[in-house]
Write a structure and sequence with these properties.
The two termini are 22 Å apart. This protein has nine helices and eight strands. It is of the alpha/beta class and 233 residues long. The protein has a single domain, classed as Alanine racemase (TIM Barrel, Alpha-Beta Barrel). It is 45% helix and 16% strand. Helix 3 runs parallel beside helix 4 and helix 4 crosses helix 5.
């Protein structure tokens, strides 16, 4: 079932890209929150190479097993990250998508320096409900990127931007969230052409086709691959 779901999602991604006239790469991140190791392994067998986890503790419990069998798997931390979890996060992840404040960047730099490790980061912009995280406005987002350009965070690789669209049936409201991120990213990329800043991580199971239309290069898909989550865990 998981393998079939992955094939179906990849076909839908390809179709959405074709409809948008896009030929660039779109990365599928399989979101494994609240799913057991067996499900993650099944996804890896089916060709998934990038996995997203919201919780560092859960990721730690799973990925010692995952990495043994699939050492080329890339783990993205996609949930709100507390500073006291950064030490563990940078040990196991290749990318932290949910960078949403300078204090978090300070801690990531500190822990990566200890490990002599560089890590990819995406800057999260708040474009959805008040409950969502992210830099709260363009100016704060711009400041974070500018500090990277100045060399304050040599162990952080600023690879792009991320957002969480509102959970809404109003397509225009969701679309506005994606447009806001894309336009903010374009403004910043013009100011800092020396930085990678190539990724736009936006879109989940219920809205990834719209996100692709608006320029997403990374989609984070959980339910469409693994089925509904068990939120009692």
């Amino acid at each position: 079932m998981i393998a079939e779901n992955i094939r179906a999602v990849k076909e839908r991604i390809a179709d959405a890209a074709a409809r948008a006239g896009r030929i660039d790469k779109i990365t599928l991140v399989a979101v494994t929150k609240n799913n057991p190791v067996a499900a993650v392994l099944a996804a890896a067998v089916a060709g998934i190479t990038v996995v997203g986890e919201n919780r560092v503790q859960e990721a730690n419990q799973k990925f010692s097993d995952i990495y043994k069998q699939f050492p080329n798997t890339n783990l993205h931390i996609i949930g709100s990250l507390q500073r006291n979890k950064v030490k563990d996060a940078v040990k196991i992840a290749s990318c932290i998508e949910s960078v949403d404040r300078l204090e978090l960047m300070d801690e990531i730099e500190k822990q990566c320096t200890k490990l002599n490790k560089t890590i990819s980061v995406l800057f999260e912009l708040h474009t959805g409900e008040e409950s969502k995280s992210g830099f709260e406005n363009f100016d704060k987002l711009f400041e974070a990127v500018s500090l990277c350009a100045e060399g304050k965070y040599p162990h952080l690789i600023p690879n792009g931007f991320m957002t969480m669209a509102p959970l809404s049936s109003d397509e225009q409201n969701v679309r506005l969230s994606f447009i806001t991120l894309r336009e903010s990213a374009n403004r910043i990329k013009k100011e800092f052409p020396e930085l990678p800043l190539k990724e736009l991580s936006m879109g989940m199971s219920n809205d990834f086709k719209l996100a692709i239309k608006e320029g997403s290069t990374i989609v984070r898909i959980g339910t469409a691959i693994f089925g509904p989550r068990d939120y009692s865990k």
